[in-house]
Sequence to fold (295 residues):
Amino acid sequence: MNHNPNTIDWKEIFHPKNIVLNLIGVAFIILALKGFMIPNKFLDGGVIGVSILIHEITHWPFGILVLLLNIPFLFLGNRLLGITFAIQSLITFLLIAIGMTFFHFDAVTSDPLLIALFGGCLIGVGMGLCIRSGSVADGIEILALLTTRKIGLNVSEVIFAMNTLLFLAAAWTFGIATALYSIVTYFSAVKALDYISHGVEQYTALHIISSKSQEIKELIVKKFGKGITVIKGERGYLPESFDVKVDCDVIVTIVTRLELLRIKDEIEIIDPHAFTYIQFIKEASGGILRIRRKH
Fold:
């Protein structure tokens, strides 16, 4: 097993499940943008929202804008989550840019409430599927993760502050009604994304109990660059054999939700019978969380 965090994991990038999830996610995003939001000048949050705003003001191609504005976040993604994640996200950005440039169809509706609800849900589902494939479709999540380490706010607060400025600009450009509907669109997208991927707004405490604990420790520390805490415990105490027990290690690590799915998949490869459970936490600080990767 490759433990070098600087090495590209091509098997992960071209895994059939990840490819299918990514393609479906991008398709939902393009449908939301082409069929609902852009024709009616509705904004989402993040880089996509900024791209729509600039597109409407300058008439520059949206596909080019969303690609170029997301490119800088790939360097942050590489530093925070590794080169494999950065390449997967680049593929997602390219697919969105190509789809927005070469696919053309009419708007599904002009009803503002339907646009806000269905457009937001579609783009949220699309982004959630992209996250499940191992990438992101909008660089603001990566930027927010870095910003929290600098100013101490949690990710949700950072994203909210960034998008508040965006929606104020939308109110100035498109009018207050469109800006308010865009806020509804954004919150619809957030809820849909959270439902699909559990979001990236919180840190997650992952607990693992396995008979192959040493291999899992090496996986988490060496491949993913995460810190771990090992709690000495006992397992057993089953109803039919209550007196039977063995010593075990309870491995605890704090990860972002972008990292969670990939780590769980790798653990399942090592030990399909490993017992894992997660706890969502509002904020985590100190320790290795504040150590920036050096590349």
